[in-house]
Amino acid sequence: MPPAITMSDESSVEVAVPKAGAVVGAATDPHLADENPFEEMMARFDAAAELLDLDPGIYQVLRHPERQIIISVPIQRDDGAVEVFTGYRVVHNTARGPGKGGIRFDLMVTLDEVKALAAWMTWKCAVVNIPFGGAKGGVVCDPPNLSDTELERVTRRYTATLINTIGPESDIPAPDVNTNERVMAWIMDTYAMHKRSASQGVVTGKPIELGGSLGRREATGRGCMIVTREALKHLGLPLRGSKVAVQGFGNVGSIAAKLMEQEGMTVVAVSDASGAIYNPHGVYIDDAIQYCRDHRFLRGYPMGEEISNQELMALDVDVLVPAAVENTITRRNAGDIKAKIICEGANGPTTAKADRILNDKGVFIIPDILANAGGVTVSYFEWVQNRSGYFWDEETVVERLGANLVKAFGDVLDVAQRHSVSMRTAAYMLSVERVAAVHRIRGMYA
Ligand code: NAD
Fold it and tell me: Among 136, 243, 258, 340, which one carries the catalytic annotation?
């Protein structure tokens, strides 16, 4: 694996959401200037709700997070000074099971961002039909400016303050931006000390030695490969020899590229933040991964022609995998895209306006909440293994992940065909209906 710039989990979405109110305005990140992923996500929820003729009461319930917690996280810095950070945990919905979602440490974290990310997790877990709801957390801090021991104190204090919120049966965190396996180990340890119980299932994305699952690291990229294979089959296109371009060469992009190459597809271009590499005969992915390990970025990789990220997006390929950051496919470049299939490895890579352009062109888009749900699916497997105390071999994880995603792809395709809607609208319809159905069965406790 090339060195990851940020650590992210099944749920990470680089959204920028303004400070106040449910209505979202301009984003704070310049490249999101006129398109905000949260607003777009909720607009897609609204569209699905309308098509489903959703009960107005359930609609209101799903628009409001169940729980929003703001905490102070005071720690003593290494020099003895006390500093107080702000932390959040939002549980959007637990109708289908415990809240599930990562914790990010970042200066840009806001409560509204965390709310958006928590809701996104609700839909993602429902579309792949795993028994989790949606949650998310964050601490407003700058990890590069914290020592390891300070980071540990932040993590442990955050966990201790939320000790009655998180738990294997209520709300299960995972890694996200700037948090990793080590942070999950501290959370698990703090929880175990307070509860006097070695509950491994309180977090996922743990080190293998501590109850992490084999195959978790590769799960999101593997999921991209699996749903792409299904899409090619559905469209009657051959797998072997299909041309692929992958934008983003981190955890998701590099693994997706590697596994697609293994399936006999020709990965003609890969890119990262430093630029893109094009080789019409196929980029040798292991070699490119090794180059990235040695040089941190792809720039200068000699086994191909250097092109720009924009040129990569416009290549004449069968499959395009945006696996970098949000909003890389906008109304400005959607018209140039020639791929027949887009597999959204990243969260929110396609804006609503771009979506319309691509739909008009007949591009088959596998939406993010389905395409990158392999990560949260294996997080679910990790939780199952922790609760049963029996660990699966990697083959079993891979086989069950495949079965789950093939089923989810088929379910979404079925809704898309029955209602003559896009795969994205179908994925939202399926997930919103699954959550709504549980609310109807459970009734309203008052
Ligand atoms: P990562 O940090 O490991 O990799 C990101 C890659 O994108 C890096 O190669 C980086 O150089 C590249 N990049 C950044 N900006 C770019 C740009 N403008 N153009 C081209 N490349 C750019 O992150 P990751 O874990 O691979 O996550 C990638 C995306 O997938 C994110 O949207 C994340 O939210 C989403 N996601 C990740 C997981 C997971 O399990 N890691 C799960 C679900 C969704």
Answer: 136
Inside any domain, residue 88: yes
Closest ligand 1 atom, residue 347 Cα: 32
Q: Are 336 and 364 in contact (CB under 8 A)?
A: no
Query: What DSSP designation does 29 have?
Result: S
Please list every protein residue whose CB sits less than 6 Å from any atom of ligand 1: 4-6, 8-10, 12-14, 220, 247-253, 271-273, 309, 323-325, 345-347, 372, 375
* CA 142/CA 159 separation, integer angstroms: 18
Say which residue the tokens 């839909």 belong to.
123
> Cα separation of 390 and 211, whole Å?
10
CATH number of the domain to which 178 belongs: 3.40.50.10860
109 within a domain of the structure (yes/no): yes
Answer whether residue 182 is part of any domain.
yes
Q: Which domain, by its residues, includes 197?
A: 65-204
Tell me, yes or no, whether 133 lies in a domain: yes
Q: Tell me: the pLDDT tens digits for 87-97?
A: 999 999 999 99
pLDDT band at 406; cut points 50, 70, 90? very high
Can you give the pTM of this predicted structure? 0.91
